Amino acid sequence: MRTARILLVEDERIIAAGMRQRLTQMGHTVLATVASGADAIAQAQALSPTLVLMDIQLEGAMDGVEAGEYIHAHWGIPVVYMTAYPDAWREQHDASLLYVRKPFDGDTLQAVLETALGKPESERG
Amino acid sequence: MVVRDTGVGFPEAVDFRHTASLGLQLVCMLTEQLHGTITLDRRRGTTFTLTFPIGPTS
After folding, report:
1. How far is Cα of residue A4 from the mean position of the Cα atoms in its chain?
2. Alpha-carbon gap, residue A30 to A20, rounded angstroms
3. In what order do the strands lie in the sheet with B2-5?
4. CB–CB of A69/A41 below 8 Å?
5. B32 and chain A: CB distance < 8 Å anywhere?
6. pLDDT tens per residue, chain B (58 residues)?
7. Which helix (H) or strand (E) holds A6?
8. Residue A103 in 3-state DSSP?
9. Inter-CA distances, A94 with A65, A91, B25, Å
10. ipTM over 0.85
11. Would you list the DSSP string of A32-84?
């Protein structure tokens, strides 16, 4: 199972704490948890996570998709979005934007995470 | 908002911001989410004072 160094972006603190615990139990490392798009961008630059787990509704003017697109465009870090409305998400967004239903179950998250992380170094040509 | 009692007092050795108590963890998380502050006064029992801004914060 591949593990990631994750930047978690979630503005509901209690939900974030639960997610952090769940991700850690799964074997991942949560580098930081932030609540706004601006903080997500700052921490992505500072911490160089291997993956960003991004909620859509955030504190401040920027939403998660805006912050996620910025992070991916500038530093090539994969972003997995969390949405409570996967049907609406699929209608509104390109299939290239990876997502999980929120609340996530571990197996689904792990599968999407592995897709986001791509082929491991050892398997690349 | 003030929550107080006149009991034996909050243990000196316990840091209420970093505790195994789920209740206190929830209080601190929610206070932060609401951009508030929380202080503890250990004199004459236990007094927690939570202060929140009115209206939007930048």
Report:
1. 11
2. 6
3. B2-5, B46-51, B37-41
4. no
5. yes
6. 999 999 999 999 999 999 999 999 999 999 999 999 999 999 999 999 999 998 765 5
7. strand A5-9
8. coil
9. 12, 8, 38
10. no
11. EEESBHHHHHHHHHHH--SEEEEESS-BSS--HHHHHHHHHHHH---EEEEES
Interchain contact A17–B (C-beta under 8 A): yes
CA-based nearest distance B32→chain A, Å: 8
A110's enclosing H/E stretch is helix A106-117
Whole-model pTM?
0.86
* Residue B19 contacts residue B8 (beta carbons within 8 Å): no
Q: Give the Cα separation of A50 and A59 in Å (integer).
A: 23
Q: What b/e sequence results for A7-26 when a residue is b if at least 16 CB atoms lie within 10 Å of its CB, and e otherwise?
A: bbbbbebeebbebbebbeee
